[in-house]
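Record 1 of the preview.
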Amino acid sequence: MMRTSASILYLLCCLSGSLMAQTDEAERNPALLPLHTSEILQSLNRFQADTENLHVVNFWATWCGPCVAELPLFQAVDSFFREQNVPVKITFFSFDMKEYAEKATVLLLKHGIKNPGFIIDEVDHDALIQGISEQWQGNIPLTLLLGNGRKLLHDQAFPTRESLIEFIKRP
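->
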C-alpha cells in the first residue's frame, strides 16, 4: 500500500511537469530522479525564462572521463557563488542508463555535490539535441547557462574553477 501510494505520488509529480517540485525533492533525496526528454526540454525553457536565478545545467555521465574530472569544479563554483550571495543554481543531468543511477549518485556525493540531479530516462537524442541547440552535436560534457532569457552553451570540459566562474559571469 505504501509503495503504491509513493508510486502514484511520483507519477502525479511527473505528469504535472513540475521540475521545480522535483528539484525540491532532489535536494532532499540525493538519488537521481528519472526524467524524459520532453520534461528536460520543458525544464530548460523554464530555467531560461527564470529572472531571479542563473541556472548552470551540466549534462554528464559516469563513463565520461572529462565529465567526472570536472565535477569537483562545479562543487567549488557552487560554494563560491553561495559565499557571494549570487543566485546560481546548478543542476546535473546524467546520461547513464537508469540501472546505473545509484553509481552516478554515489559519484556526485563523493565529490560533495548535493545539487539536484536527474537521470535521463527514455532519451530521444534527436529531440534533445534540437531542443538544446542545433549547434550541439550531442557530445558531453555539456554545460548550459540559462536565465533572464539567456542561453549559453559550453560543450567541453572546464579545465579550471576559474574558467567555469568566467563562463557563469559572462554577460
